Amino acid sequence: MKIMVNDEVHEVSARTLAALIDELGYSGARIATAMNGDFVPVPLREKTDLRDGAKVEIVAPMQGG
């Protein structure tokens, strides 16, 4: 299925947001996720189904001031 991740099109086999994170190599990283504009907390990623055309944002916290 084709989805947008951080404004780039990806062809993925993942069916959940948690599986997508693994497939893209973010497993174990401290990240925040949103799908179609809505924040998805860690406990809900496994239950959040992906659909063709979904827009996913994956961001890592940055230090600075």
From TrEMBL:
Transmembrane segments: none annotated. NCBIfam families: thiS. This is Thiamine biosynthesis protein ThiS. InterPro entries: Beta-grasp_dom_sf, Mopterin_synth/thiamin_S_b, Thi_S, ThiS/MoaD-like. CDD domains: Ubl_ThiS (cd00565). It holds the Pfam family ThiS.
